[in-house]
Predict the structure.
Amino acid sequence: MDEHHEPNAALTDQPVTAPAIGAQASTPYAATTPETVFEAESVSIYYGDFRAVTDVSFQIYQYEITAFIGPSGCGKTTVLRTLNRMNDLVDGARVEGDIKYHGASLYGPNVSAAAVRRRIGMVFQKPNPFPKSIYDNVAYGPRINGVRGKDKLEEIVENSLRGAALWDEVKDRLKKSAHGLSGGQQQRLCIARTLAVEPDVVLMDEPCSALDPIATGRIEELMQEIKSRYTIVIVTHNMQQASRVSDRTAYYSVLTDDKSDTRTGVLVEYDRTERIFQNPRDPRTEAYVTGRMG
Amino acid sequence: MSATPTATSSERATHLTAPRPLGDRIFSIAAAAAGLLVLVILVLIALSTGNEARPWFEAEGLTGILSNNWDPAHGHYGALAFIYGTLITATIAIIIAVPVSLGIALLIVEVVPKRVAQPIVWFIDLLAVVPSVVFGLWGILVFAPWLAPHFKSIASAVEGIPVLDSLFGSPTSGQSFFTAGLILAVMIVPIVTSLSREVIATTPPIEREAAYALGATKLEMITGAVWPHSKGGIVGAVMLGLGRAMGETIAAALVIGSSAQITAHLFSPGDSMPAVIANQFGEASGLQRSALIGLGVVLFVITIIVNIAARAVVQRSLAKSRGA
Amino acid sequence: MAVTTPPPAIDLSDHATWRRVKSNIAVALMVVALVLVAIPLVLVLYTVVKRGIGVISWDFLTGDIGPQISKQGGIGPAIVGTLLITGAATLMAVPLGILGAIYLNEYGRKSPFAQLIRFMSYVMTGVPSIVMGLFIFTIWVLRFQFSGFAGALGLACLMLPVVIRSTEEMLLLVPDTLREASYALGASKARVTLGVVIPAAVGGIVSGCLLAVARAAGETAPLLFTILTVTSVNSSLTGPNTALATQIFSNATSPYDAAQARAWGASLTLIAIVFVLTVAARLVTRRLTTPKR
């Protein structure tokens, strides 16, 4: 299941995964320890009776890029979507355990899913701009959040497009349909659209899998540029990408129970990226990152 | 090296070039003929009814037909009042049915979980199978009498108010343009809902997710992601409903009041093309019969045009939605 | 470093209350729309049952039709007429409709001619029923006679495009791999279609046909000018006949209470027939269609 790290005073930036619900981190931190954005505690995710993900615990830190990697069906996208309550949209989806966001439970009684999603944005695998103009796509989020004045909206649109490194390419055709853009441009538009509501976190679900290598490279550059202002969690099939861009990596895998013939996703190992790729602790991690499996 | 003699292999080869079995050919011809039948029937409808209506066209001419002078006693058959009645009742039906159908369609596709959606769909299908004549019977014996006093109170309430007065004043019995429009509305809800559902369902799910991921409420998601994809197709659905409302005969015939007049007063009795045909054909002969058949021709042409346009609009919208 | 109290938790509750309220109002309006439509349906069904059930009796269902003013009288001939005429229409429309759909989906496919036929059968579904009635009047009744057969022709013309379209939809659902397997064994196209494709789609086809029959049974307008009316049973397709729908229509405008009561009874009977067919269609869909994998 998940790795238990022994608290080690010598390695001040060694993360401690919560071994049990309610346990406090007891390692003395250096002042440079980043703030925890997400804290997942023994999270299991069910679709009806099927347990897709079992007993996952981790902490995600601010202004870092965290990558979720693993073979198909290991639940990494499922876990990602739990972070902004997008699983609510699936009939019969259920979360056990808790996920805390800056200390507040995401699944608590008074929590509004819409409020969660405003702070925790998401970019999807296939670019999905609305059939509207580029301007209206980016302005959609601010508009529904009540921003009215034309000047204010224009400012937000420009800043968001700049933030997504798309402004120069589209500034002369803001009113044209978003569908006229190339795939890579559309994905950056979707990123701009997400940034326009000024979220705290940007979740990315295999954002480059539908794009060519050049477009992929630009998105990876973009991620590095914006990570000083946003916490990023990215699910990716591409191990090289994970090792290129991320600070920490979580490796998920499938656990098969031969007796009951059930499969479920588990978190195998979660550590700093260099560690995962160069010196993983778990043999399953090593098998995956060296390409011997999956 | 083969043990079989050469003769057999050439026999086998001949088999490959044998003509198609007779049964197969007959079958394909029969199938094509059945398809062709549709075309044949449509052409026959146009030709035969057009032919029977010719005396009327010739007697009245275009100006006569468009005059408001339906007077069998004196041999005049101007159809304006019926054309007007058809358009008015269909318009009323559309104004009422479209928001209602859209609401139901959105409810089914976007709001309720699948287990609740299925019964709702069956319910709407139930509405579609209730025979028109039963709606008409209820309309004339129950609904219209019930409406009559309400018409009176509305009419006295709006007395004196400019526009409303001419629309809702002057009620007589419950049989009126408005009553017919109401019942027509109920009857076209199933088809408009069904087509709207189809159109709404073509919204790509990932765009719905994009809207939710930005923190949208359900209404915001519908206006942001669903509506841009659906608006074209829904226009088509509305046109289809219009076509159906114009052609619906029996319910309208029973509650419209059978009074050939052109008036803005929606609560007064009127008449429409299908209604007058249904009501007067039994005893008509000669020129009157020709005129009634002629009304049928007009109805045929109008509904065909509306239906073709509706189909074109819906096809274009569906193609755009899937292509994008 | 002492363990401090955790920072004040982030407020994730809903502050966009007006937006939430707007959305809820919208959903509420959708529900209202459903209710608005439910009301007339429930009212109509309720009234038909309430006013019709007292009229139903064995004598009513089998007795001849009397004069409108009479307190006696049944609708026997109308029931026979409806079953006879609708049955005849079904026998004509269903085989032709299925054949036509077979042509569209198995033979013509995307050819221009097939596209034209497809388009025309769509157009034909929009032809008002009264126009169909006038059509049969002009090409048949004027030449021959008022008869149950003429009425059946009118109903068949209404049913044909509906059967074609619903059958074609079902044929489209049959996967090509089934056809290919049959061809690979050397079967001719007719054999493939009749032996493999139709059986695979039979549930959906039957269900679609049952629904078409249900609608046809309730149609009035095509019968108004083609079958005339009779007061005693005519169990042949020649000569005038009557049907439940046309009887209801003429009794609806009658000033006599007894006639109106018979109209309600006839309505209840007609609705019962239509419902049985509709329910049968649903059951067939459930039992005979192969579940999607």
Q: What stands out?
A: The CA atoms of residues 65 and 232 of chain A lie 5 Å apart. Chain A touches chain B through 27 residues (CB under 8 Å). Residues 36-289 of chain A form a domain with the Rossmann fold fold (CATH 3.40.50.300). The beta strands of chain A are 36-47, 50-61, 65-69, 93-101, 104-105, 120-123, 201-205, 231-235, 248-257, 262-272.
